[in-house]
Amino acid sequence: MPYTPKHYNQLMFFAYEIETSFVAKPVNPGLLPHMPIPNAGHFSADSLSRLNMLANAVNETLLIAQANLHLTPDINDPNTLKVFMAPEFFFRPYNCDPIPAGITDVAHAENIYNTDATKTAYALQTSYNYSELANITATLKNIFADPRFQDWIIVPGSIFSRIDTPSGYAYMNTTGIIKGGSTEAPSIFIHKCDISQLDGAPGRNAGIRDPDLGPILRTESIEKARIFSCDGLTFGIEVCLDHAKHRLQTVLNNWQGTRPVIDIQLLTACGMPINPAYAVVGQGGHVLRNDGQRNRTPKSEIQTKVLRIGNHAPTMVSTAAAGYFPLPFQIRNLPLQQVAYYATQRL
Q1: CA–CA distance, 293 with 269 (Å, rounded to integer)
Q2: How many other C-beta atoms lie within 10 A of the C-beta of residue 208?
Q3: Residue 289 lies in a domain
Q4: Across the strands, what pairs with 80?
Q5: Which of 264, 316, 271 is CA-nearest to residue 20?
Q6: Which pLDDT score, from 0 to 100, does residue 311 have?
Q7: What is the value of pTM for the model shown?
Q8: Which residues, at least 6 apart from 197, have a Cβ–Cβ distance to it below 8 Å?
């Protein structure tokens, strides 16, 4: 199906609330006939399961929303953009069974594996190789080319991977913005700049900091890719710690030429609240967050920039979830996950 640019005047947000600070084993809910995963032989069992879980979660969300029109009156409205976001580290492989006793999350594992050799061994178990990262990103575009998702944006959480460079292993934490409905629809994938303890990379070896790979990833065009325009809207996207390091704000401050106005700021995270000081959206713009950290409350939210009556100082107003949709499949050792639903917001 060819891509036709659209115009949207409303926004709906669906947050895939699942814990990702704990590296857990996925289940495979099975292929959907209308959302194929091509070249499945190029994937590990882990990444194939997660691709199927994400496809099924988006599909279930659409079906449940359509069956509950009193909750989601605009789900079929072609003027309403639907945004579905998974949390950071949704794609992080589970290759250690059973989980070593006493480990509660990746940061704890880093403290237990307290030598360079054991940290590297653990990181190699919990990261995809770069070839698999490339296959995952290419496949995500194909999965959501289903015409039913022509009014959807998918943020697939992040994909944790490694690349072997002359300086050693560099670790990549990659997220994206995928417009659904067509393989010709626009999309972009960007890499997190700063590795945190939760990433589990020894020495915080972020790809962008690698002496061989870093200069390639720090070019102006790649930095500007964090700002993405589609269907008359401009998005900015950050991964967790990059928000605390005000990455989008820095990109905009360094922008050469006419600086874009951000309509929707996307934050996929695992332990990162929205900082209003780093909200780069314009007046009436929305910041959408989904967080996979265990016990994080709330796990997701919308914050909208408004003017405070009186002194007209910009402020952020938070919107809580209007409801939750349970999903009929789960990741091992984690509670049954759910999708939080946010009522329509005006664009």
Answers
A1: 8
A2: 21
A3: no
A4: 10
A5: 271
A6: 67
A7: 0.93
A8: 106, 107, 110
Bridge partner list, 239: 268
Residue 166 pLDDT class (50, 70, 90 cuts): confident
Which residue range forms the structural domain that includes residue 70?
Answer: 10-222+321-346
The yes-or-no verdict on residue 198 having pLDDT over 80 is no
Radius of gyration of the chain (CA): 19
Residue 54 domain-assigned (yes or no):
yes
106-120 average pLDDT score: 68
**Cis ω before 298 (30° cut-off from 0):** yes
The answer to whether the beta carbons of residues 241 and 214 sit under 8 Å apart is: no
Residue carrying the six token digits 């990444």:
47
pLDDT digit string, tens, across residues 237-255: 999 999 999 999 999 999 9
How wide is the angle at C-alpha 92 spanned by C-alphas 337 and 156, nearest 5°? 60
Query: Does residue 47 form part of some domain?
Result: yes
Q: Between these two residues, 307 and 162, which has the higher pLDDT value?
A: 162
In a domain, 169, yes or no: yes
Half-sphere exposure of 341 (CA within 13 A, CB side): 24
For residue 155, what pLDDT is reported? 98
Ramachandran angles phi, psi of 89, nearest 5° = 70, 15
- Counting the structural domains of the chain, the total is 1
